[in-house]
Structure formats: C-alpha cells, structure tokens
Write a structure and sequence with these properties.
The protein has 245 residues and is of the alpha/beta class. The chain is 33% helix and 26% strand. The chain contains seven helices and nine strands. The chain has helices at residues 69-76, 110-120, 125-139, 154-168, 184-198, 211-217, 235-243; strands spanning 20-32, 42-54, 58-62, 84-89, 95-98, 172-176, 203-207, 220-225, 228-234. It is globular. It starts with 19 loop residues before the first strand and ends with a helix.
Length: 245
C-alpha cells in the first residue's frame, strides 16, 4: 500500500460543463457457480453499475478486496464484456489499463513492449520511438530495458507499464493499485508525476486501498461493496462513509 505522508490535496477541477468520456449503463457481470448460496447458482461480480466519467476528472474507486473494483476497470478497458448493460467510450479517446503484468509480451524486451504499447495507445511508430529513451530513464530499468520482460520482477513490470502510459499521453488512464508497487523512491516519483499530470486535463480512474492517495488525488469517489455502488460523490464524504463501516 502506498503511504502518502506529505501530499497536498489536488484542487477540485470544475467538470460541470465537461462531456462524459466513458459511461457504464446498468452494467452487470455474472457467472454461474456450483455454490448453493448464490442466487440460482449465479454470482454477480458487478450488479447494475451505472456511472459516468467526465473529461479531465480523477475518479477514485475504493472497497475491500473481492468486491469487483478490478473487474470494473477491465470492463472499462474492453477486456471483459458485461453480461447485461453497456459500456460506452468516446471513440476519439484512447485508454490504457495499468495493472501488474497485463498486456506485455513476456518474450519481448522492455523496449519492444514499450514501443508496441505506445502504438496500441494511439502513437505513430515515429512518436513511439521518440518516447523510448524517456521511458527507459523514468522507469529506472537501465540495462534491463533491453532484456525480455519474462525476466522482470513484479515491480519492474509495473514501472514499465506506468511509465509507458505516462509518457505516451493516453487520454484515459485506468490505474489498478500500480502506484503501490516498487521501492519507496519510485513510488514517490510516480505519485509526483501522476499529480503533475492531473494538474492538466488527464482523465483517470484510480483504484486504491489508500485513503490518503484517493483523498489527495481524486475529484470524486465511488465505494464498491458486494458488486454495487454503496456511495458516490464528494471524495471526503465517500471516504468518511467507507471508513465508518
């Protein structure tokens, strides 16, 4: 878990006039199970979730383990399809899911993976190539940048994923606890870089177990509990409700 010791809260950005760039409309994701305590053998990982993500805002997502936070990010990223309901994203916007070990070809080097990731996120090959040395430097991978990702530790993969998305300017960042991985020095640098990005027009959905991180970085928050939205709105109020349970 990321410890945020001296982080000034981000100024709340006015999103009242913004158009939403991502919408979940009555989204349910379920699967059949042999466990009898599920309703008719069906387990709803997410149950009738509706929300809108507005351009330029940072939406924090909190909740205990296993309530569907990561699943919701995967739906937003198009990795999973809902059982019912719909997920709509502005087609002019690019998005990237930052989570440990997702989306890398383990047989390719860090450099090749960064190049492919940047191009998949909307960069031309020429643009992607121009990012590579900055990605190598910021990620602190040094000579390992030229080695296959299968030789990387969890922290190294997370640094590569975070840095690639940061440097290639994806429109919508979907961040799943990735700021909590790595040594203390990199966590501090990553948090500062994210804060700088958020001072502009970056749109972010941030899943975190750290109340301090959510409170410092997010304009708005939702609390997911048992697959449903238990609270939504002002970050401070949602955190207060969550911590009071």
């Amino acid at each position: 878990m990321l410890t945020v010791d001296h982080v000034e809260p981000m100024p709340i950005r006015n999103t009242a006039r913004s158009e939403y760039v991502l919408e979940l409309d009555h989204v349910t994701l379920s699967y059949r199970s042999q466990r009898t305590h599920f309703d008719h053998g069906v387990h709803n990982v997410l149950d009738d979730i509706s929300l809108e993500l507005f351009e330029g805002e940072t939406l924090g997502v909190i909740g205990r383990n296993g309530v569907g936070k990561t699943t919701m990010l995967q739906l937003m990223a198009g990795i999973l399809a809902p059982t019912s309901g719909s997920v709509r994203q502005d087609k002019s916007k690019s998005s990237s899911l930052l989570t440990i070990g997702l989306g890398f070809r383990h047989d390719l080097t860090g450099r090749d993976n960064a190049l492919l990731s940047a191009m998949l996120q909307g960069s031309t090959r020429k643009q992607a190539l121009s990012f590579l040395e900055d990605i190598k430097e910021f990620s602190e991978l040094a000579d390992s940048f030229e080695e296959p990702v299968k030789t990387y530790s969890t922290g190294m993969r997370s640094r590569l994923g975070f840095t690639t998305a940061l440097m290639t300017h994806v429109d919508i960042l979907l961040v799943d606890e990735i700021l909590s991985v790595g040594d203390a020095g990199f966590r501090t640098k990553a948090s500062a870089a994210m804060k700088e990005r958020l001072s502009g027009e970056q749109t972010v959905v941030l899943v975190s177990h750290s109340d301090a991180e959510i409170g410092a970085l997010c304009d708005r928050a939702i609390w997911i509990n048992e697959g449903r939205i238990a609270a939504e709105g002002n970050t401070e109020l949602v955190l207060s409700q969550y911590s009071g349970v």
